[in-house]
Amino acid sequence: MSEIHYDAHPSMLRIRPFSTPLMVILLVAGILFAVMGTALIPVPLPEPLDERIVEIAGLVVAGLALLQLCIWWLATRSDHLVIRDDELVWTHGLLSKNYTEIKLSSVRTVRLHQSLLQRILNAGDIKIYTSGDAPELVVRGLPNPNHLRELIKRV
Questions:
Q1: What is the pLDDT of residues 119-148, one digit of tens each?
Q2: What is the domain extent for residue 22?
Q3: Final residue of a structural domain among 75, 102, 117
Q4: Where is the YdbS-like PH domain (predicted)?
């Protein structure tokens, strides 16, 4: 078996740098409102809005935020990239899997795109071309993309 040089999943925070912290904040806020109720609200509430409604709304917000975070986490865990001595293997899927194997000797072009925020987070989007005008493989949000590009182009 050949040596593994790169083994990574896309990062949820690197793909969604604003949405992920927002969902975590909504999760915490929802839990706080579910536990503490109206004690967190400094102003008096209108009469029809009682403690129980605020607690239920907090549970709903926390539940939806947790569900969204779980969906994003599963989406990043379902993608996996491995680079060995002579090949690149991209696995996609959770229950049903798709495998893309590319011999490194057949790679014609590697394109790396990094926005300013991706550069700060050390992430990037990689496009790998083997033949033709369309990329054979497009991967978003991988960590250490410059190291990845160097590994692919080394062959």
A1: 999 999 999 999 888 999 999 989 999 998
A2: 12-75
A3: 75
A4: 78-152
